[in-house]
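Re: the 81-residue chain
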Amino acid sequence: MTDIILDDAVWADVDEGTEALLQEWQVKEGDRVEAGQVLAVAELVKTSHEIFAPSAGRIVRLKVAEQDTFGRGAVLAELEA
């Protein structure tokens, strides 16, 4: 199982405790995805960031709902190869 998170690089200059907003899922549980496919869009400090599949597989679980906030390192979804 692979955890899907918002890339650590986008948090580099963000104050500790700041949360991102999951704007939109572009997949649903059970969907098969390809490596590099956009899974979701999140907003962090007024900037939108696409979240990509690190590998091909199937989305097992979406752990953060659309329009919910999440912190650095939060697992957004689980991917099964």
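The first strand starts at residue 2 and ends at 4.
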